[in-house]
Amino acid sequence: MPYFAAGSRKIYQRCLIEADTIKTNMENQTYVLKNVLLETGFEYEGDEAKGTKTALFCIEVDKGKIANIKPNDLNINGVDAKGRLMLPAFKDMHAHLDKMLFGLPWQAVSAKRRTVKDMIAYEQKMIPEWLKTSVERTEKMIDFLHSYGTHFIRSHFNIEPTSRLDSLYHLEEALQNKKETLDAELVAFPQHGIYYTQTEPLLKEVARMDSVTFIGGVDPYSIDGSIEKPMELITQLALDNNKGIDIHLHERGESGIKTIEFLIDKALENPGLKGKTYVSHAFALGHLSAAETEKIAERLAGAGVGIVSSVPFWGTIMPIPTLRKYGVEVLVGNDNIQDHWSTFGSGNMLQKAHLIAELYGYTTEWELSRTLAFATRYVLPLDDHGSQQWPKVGDNADAVLLDASCSAEAVARISPVKSLIHKGNIVF
User: Amidohydrolase domain: from which residue to which, for each copy (predicted)?
Assistant: First the structure.
């Protein structure tokens, strides 16, 4: 049981009971969605997909799963989807729910804080104040992300001597209160450096916790003065505790590439890390020659090391097409949403997919429909050949309903989300 301030433990326990009751009641619901628009295939002109075929269906949901898919029946008693397009619900694979400024007065980024160490000093000053309202504000942020169709979040949480374990505990409380509408996985993030602020004992403590899925890190060379020392600790904690790895790497140039190569080598030496190791941001990859990019993309794919990107474009264009060509798993997240690190960040995963399409010139029906994968973690209604693959009976009932005629239009026009369903629970 997490530690909370005096008097809060009983409140937390009550929240657990109430949330479990709500989740049980909602997940046991059986209902039918009628007038649901689903993609059924591509319309071809020669060998080019010139459009997307769709049809209306009735979808039965039972105990959080899709129980049946039938031709549309207007006379059936059910929830009317009004002909809206159903797509897989969205996943934000890089967020910081524990320290957004959402819910506080507007604040743009300060010109006085330019380096990561500037930010560390600022956070050490502000975290005690932010923690006072972090549970309530995190829940509001989750509601905000829901409004854009997000039902799953990988969230980093600060672990450092200023907040100690409180950032984690507050985040866990907020997630517990939202468990019927959101799934999440947590990354222990030593934002202030592992050795720069003596965070090693705390990181070792949280690495043993069941609620923590990944061990994180940040810019080992520029913050801790060494690549090997902090990265050896991170990888060993992951191996010892059966965790994944997801590190922040803003460093460009030689130190950034060496850190990526270090993780590749560790994953090749330890098969248990394959498919569970990620580099967030990895800006160094955006400053290589074409030949160098191809070489490291091939190595990343062979080691099962993925890249998590917020799709930056101010001075750094990430080589996402090359990474995907070699089979590197590229995950996408919003990262900053009204915080002290960035003025920008909409919270809209469909907008991220749109940005990728615009940056890399994905303009055709087929390309736009494939780009939706960055918002859904590669769950798509149609496979590359146009065969219908989602939804299927037995799938989790995780979906959004949008005002769009097909995936390609949804990505191109950032179509508004009108409804979100999470494990059968109609969130809105």
Answer: 240-428
Could you tell me the pLDDT band of residue 15, with boundaries at 50, 70 and 90?
Answer: very low
Q: How many C-alpha atoms does 29 have within 13 Å on its Cβ side?
A: 21
With 0.85 as the threshold, say if the pTM is over it: yes
Order the strands of the 90-95 sheet from edge to edge: 90-95, 150-158, 183-189, 212-215, 244-249, 277-281, 305-309, 330-332
For 241, left (φ over 0), alpha (ψ -120 to 50), or beta? alpha
User: What angle in degrees, to the nearest 10, is found between the helix axes of 166-177 and 116-131?
Assistant: 60
Confidence of residue 110 (pLDDT cuts 50, 70, 90): confident
pLDDT category of residue 26 using cuts at 50, 70 and 90? very low
Dist CA 252 CA 260 (whole Å) = 11
Residue percentage of the chain with pLDDT more than 90: 83
Which H, E and C letters describe the chain, residue by residue?
Answer: CCCCCCCHHHHHHHHHHHHHHHHHHHHCCEEEEEEEEEEEEEEEECCEEEEEEEEEEEEEEECCEEEEEEECCCCCCCEECCCCEEEECEEEEEECCCCCCCCCCCCCCCCCCCCHHHHHHHHHHHHHHHHCCHHHHHHHHHHHHHCCCEEEEEEEEECECCCECHHHHHHHHHHHHCCCCCEEEEEEECCCCCCCCCCHHHHHHHHCCCCEEEECCECHHHHHCCCHHHHHHHHHHHHHCCCEEEEEECCCCHHHHHHHHHHHHHHHHCHHHCCCEEEEECHHHHHCCHHHHHHHHHHHHHHCEEEEECCCCCCCCCCHHHHHHCCCCEEECCECCCCCCCCCCCCCHHHHHHHHHHHHCCCCHHHHHHHCHHHHCCCCCECCCCCECCCCCCCECCEEEECCCCHHHHHHHCCCEEEEEECCEECC
d(CA 246, CA 231): 11
Of 294, 300, 290, residue with least CA distance to 259: 300
- pLDDT score, position 99: 85
Domains of the chain listed by start with CATH number: 26-89+379-426 (2.30.40.10), 91-360 (3.20.20.140)
The angle formed by the CA atoms of residues 200, 183 and 424, to the nearest 5 degrees, is: 170
Read off φ and ψ for residue 335, nearest 5 degrees. 65, -90
Q: How many residues does the chain have?
A: 428
Q: How far apart are the C-alpha atoms of 189 and 331, rounded to whole Å? A: 18
